[in-house]
Specification:
By secondary structure, this protein is mainly alpha-helical. It has a domain of 61 residues.
Length: 163
């Protein structure tokens, strides 16, 4: 594996290799990802994770609904990482999964506050944006385009920030 420039992740050789014989398999894989994404979106809608009202309730501390969902996701993530480490589970491509300690810096506090402020104002977290658009809340396109623009701008000036 090689470290991708300007990123905090490593790029696997399977991510960068191009093999024209596997074009149909790539299409099949993309269809699988699309199906899982649609299923995930349906779950978001049915659990009301994409509900602007539920998100506002969370930030006003009026309901436990969203905190329960976020808390259960954290617990599932913790159990998953424990199982991956305990049984040395590998990726689909047979590569070892490595967990690297993250270094804390003040920028994470500012970024988290900015993220939370945007989430509270728009009623939209980046995860369910597409599900919200799929439910007909097309005004969320503004939030999606803003998130893309913000990510792009950060990419331009990332090297100027202390990391």
């Amino acid at each position: 594996m090689q470290k991708h420039p300007n990123s905090d992740f490593k790029v696997s050789s399977t991510d960068t290799a191009i093999n024209k014989n596997h074009t149909s398999q790539e299409c099949y894989n993309n269809l699988k990802y699309l199906a899982v994404g649609i299923l995930f979106g349906i779950i978001f809608v049915k659990s009301e994770v994409v509900s602007w009202f539920r998100i506002q309730e969370m930030f006003r501390l009026q309901s436990f609904h969203m905190y329960g969902i976020i808390g259960s996701a954290i617990i599932v993530g913790m159990i998953s990482i424990f199982i991956i480490k305990k049984f040395n589970i590998k990726t689909i491509h047979g590569e070892t999964i490595e967990f690297h300690p993250k270094k804390f810096n003040k920028g994470q506090i500012y970024g988290g506050l900015l993220f939370g402020l945007g989430w509270a104002i728009t009623g939209a977290c980046p995860g369910p944006l597409f599900a919200q658009i799929g439910t007909g809340a097309t005004v969320i396109l503004v939030t999606l385009l803003s998130a893309i623009a913000g990510t792009w701008c950060y990419g331009l000036i990332r090297d100027k920030f202390p990391h």
